[in-house]
Amino acid sequence: MSPTREEQHWMYRNMVTSRRFEEAIAKIYFEGKSPAFNMANGPIPGEMHLSDGQEPVAVGVCAHLTPEDVVTATHRPHHQAIAKGVDLDKMAAEIFGKKTGLSGGRGGHMHLFDDDVNFACSGIIAQGMGPAVGAALSRKMQGKPGVAVAFVGEGAVNQGGWHEAMNLAAVWNLPFICVVEDNGWGISVAKKTASSIGSHADRAAAYGIPGKRIEGNDPYAIYEAAGEAIARARAGEGPSLLECETYRLAGHFMGDAEAYRPEGEKDALFEKDPIPKMRERLLAEGAASEAELSTIEEESAARVDAAIKFARESDDAAPEDALTRVFAA
Amino acid sequence: MTKSNERKLTIARAMAEATAQEMRIDPSVFVMGEDIGPLGGVYGNTRGLIEEFGAERIRDTPISETAFIGAAVGAAQDGMRPVVELMFVDFFGVCFDAIYNLMAKNIYFSGGNVKVPMVLMTSTGGGYSDGGQHSQCLYGTFAHLPGMKVVAPSNAYDAKGLMTAAMRDDSPVVYMYHKGLQGMGWLGTEAGATVHVPEEPYTLEIGKAKVVREGKDVSIVSCGMGVHNALKAAKKLEEQGVGAEVVDLVSLVPLDRDTIRASVAKTGRLIVVDEDYMSYGLSGEIIATVTEHDISVLKAAPKRVAFPDVPIPFARVMEQFCLPNPDKIVAAWDEMQAA
Ligand SMILES: Cc1ncc(C[n+]2csc(CCOP(=O)(O)OP(=O)(O)O)c2C)c(N)n1
């Protein structure tokens, strides 16, 4: 299964939009935080986890999803949110803590919710698994179409909740896919020192479901594997586990000095940046012209600029609104 | 003043120093947790330890809190003295069984025949827009459940003495440190938490509160970051001619009820400052401590300045609106006078 020309353009567009969005955030993030980096201050306060380099996983999987399908994401959610079609203006405003944000500023960067496209995320490691499995169960019980995808990091696979959810999805034969984004690091802890096996995809055997590892941070290979897994789920054939090799080009969070990285690892990663690689491939294979790609890049940049402008110009959340919306209306 | 008294440490460095000193004399002490090795802990409280003690005794763990906190219980019962870190107290949800059904109950279930000498360090508090899953205090949650001692230092001197005491204690101790007091530049830090700390090891008695400022008109009782807010409020009240006494609880379990009662008996008025959620928590417990003992000491109804019962909002203006601060404490005094 390979992506159509149109899908390839969609994938490239979303990768570029995600990257531009994060570049914009990275630039604004330190405003008002100098001289000492004080994360309480500035237009974007709080912790910030960027997903630069991990875009192929989000687009390779989400290319197969519709707004009806459910996605749960992690503490590093922007690329997944953008690929799932979360409203970019409202998402930017949320990250700035504005009234116009997805939750009016209540949730913030790690707790983005957009029910229009069935997207949610959580800052607690592996805790998107249960809700995604539950959404898959609910679809099955109601006879509603759609699949649920939980994105997690490779570190999350060592959580008890991850294993419980995988087993539940398997015994109940649910339309569920767990996508592991393996960027090699859980904050400062290398995968090889935290996991007893090299490929988390092998863990699928413990649940009697298909598991596949995709090397190379390659959007095409991810597209293909995700397509098979999602088709299986849609056909009622049950859950799958995919582990995608990917790269975190930024630190764990903004301000991370990354002293734990082996010398030179970072430079080597930049050479493998998936966005220029995809661009070259699109041109080489004749899937897009230089002019088409430039248009996609310009439109993506404009889209991001508009979202950032919207966020900046929106009103701050009203302080006393903090006390509202605790319970359902 | 001796040389050792001249140096000031942050809470983070005081915790690391206490741990290192104890590890040098007691080979059964070891540390486990996420990013506590080469990174030195997200809040700096294990910095330098791996260089001295190596990866066998300073163990980076997978993100598997249920397993490594449960393992600490087993190791503690088997003769070791583990110090484990739960990076943010908010993460207790994935591993609470290991904490409150194992760590906290095994001494009791064994009829006192086993010891569970372990320390669970965990960060608390918000104020920097990290959202509702990374900003809670949860003092009441941990203090409510029997079987674990709970401490919460407000400055580096207490932090070192409590850390040493916690490592030497044969019961489990939950050591709750406030992020805004750690001395991490990237978080912004409360200057009052960085104080003189002796070089030699010493212990602070767990279960003993401190009167950190004397006054005759009102007792302001708090812990951790709340103590600094209380001291700032006390300064403002002094300008109005009001003498505020500030009680730093230091330990939440055991709770030094005598010191609280003595202070309120002296001042006749009580304001409790709690960064944890208001209802069913620390603030109610402190008030009950006074009122169920001798309500006649009170000249006014007690007041609480606590986090309202809502999840911690992300947006800075919303979060600041909810957090206790010196002005809210002064306002509580004003309301008390107006009543
Ligand atoms: C239950 C829980 N434990 C610890 C953390 C702290 N934490 C946040 S991100 C992270 C590393 C996650 O690694 P991984 O799952 O590989 O995702 P990545 O950050 O690499 O995208 C940790 C330990 C948390 N948020 N939740």
Describe the structure.
- The complex is a heterodimer of chains A (329) and B (339).
- Chain A contains 11 helices and 9 strands.
- Chain A is of the alpha/beta class.
- In chain B, 37% of the residues lie in helices and 19% in strands.
- Chain B has 12 helices and 14 strands.
- In chain B, strands 3-2-4-5-7-6-12 form a 7-stranded mixed sheet, with helices on both faces.
- In chain B, helix 1 (11-25) runs parallel beside helix 7, helix 3 packs parallel to helix 4 and helix 8 crosses helix 12 (326-338).
- Chain B is globular, with a radius of gyration of 20 Å.
- The model of chain B has no long low-confidence stretch (mean pLDDT 97).
- Classes of the chains: A alpha/beta (329), B alpha/beta (339).
- At the A-B interface, loops of A face helix 11 of B.
- The structure holds thiamine diphosphate (TPP).
- Thiamine diphosphate sits between chains A (75-76, 123-125, 153-156, 183, 185-187, 252) and B (34, 63, 65, 87, 91, 94).
The amount of beta strand of chain B, in percent, is 15-25%
Largest sheet composition of chain A: 7 strands, mixed
Order of helices and strands of chain A: HHEHHEEHEHEEEHEHEHHH
Mean pLDDT of chain A, nearest integer? Answer: 97
Helix/strand/pairing class of chain A, anyone? alpha/beta
Beta fraction of chain A: 5-15%
N- to C-terminal distance of chain A: 45 Å
State the total count of DSSP E strands of chain B.
14
The oligomeric state is heterodimer
Q: Spans of chain A with pLDDT under 50 lasting ≥5 residues?
A: none
Q: What is the number of helices of chain A? A: 11
- Structural class of chain B, please? alpha/beta
Q: What pair of chains forms the biggest interface?
A: A-B, 52 and 43 residues
Percent helix range of chain A: 40-55%
Rg of chain B (C-alpha, Å): 20 Å
SSE layout:
The complex is a heterodimer of chains A (329) and B (339).
Chain A: H1 5-29, H2 55-62, E1 70-73, H3 78-84, H4 88-95, E2 113-114, E3 119-121, H5 129-142, E4 148-153, H6 160-171, E5 176-182, E6 185-186, E7 189-190, H7 191-194, E8 211-214, H8 219-234, E9 240-245, H9 265-271, H10 274-284, H11 290-313
Parallel strand pairs in A: 1-3, 1-4, 4-5, 5-9, 8-9
Antiparallel strand pairs in A: 2-3, 6-7
Helix pairs in contact in A: 1-2, 1-3, 1-10, 1-11, 2-3, 2-8, 4-11, 5-6
Chain B: E1 8-9, H1 11-25, E2 29-33, H2 49-57, E3 58-60, H3 65-77, E4 81-88, H4 96-103, H5 106-109, E5 119-124, H6 139-144, E6 149-151, H7 156-168, E7 173-178, E8 195-196, E9 210-213, E10 218-222, H8 225-239, E11 244-248, E12 251-253, H9 257-267, E13 270-277, H10 282-294, E14 303-307, H11 316-322, H12 326-338
Parallel strand pairs in B: 2-3, 2-4, 4-5, 5-7, 6-7, 10-11, 10-13, 13-14
Antiparallel strand pairs in B: 1-8, 6-12, 9-11
Helix pairs in contact in B: 1-7, 3-4, 8-12, 9-10
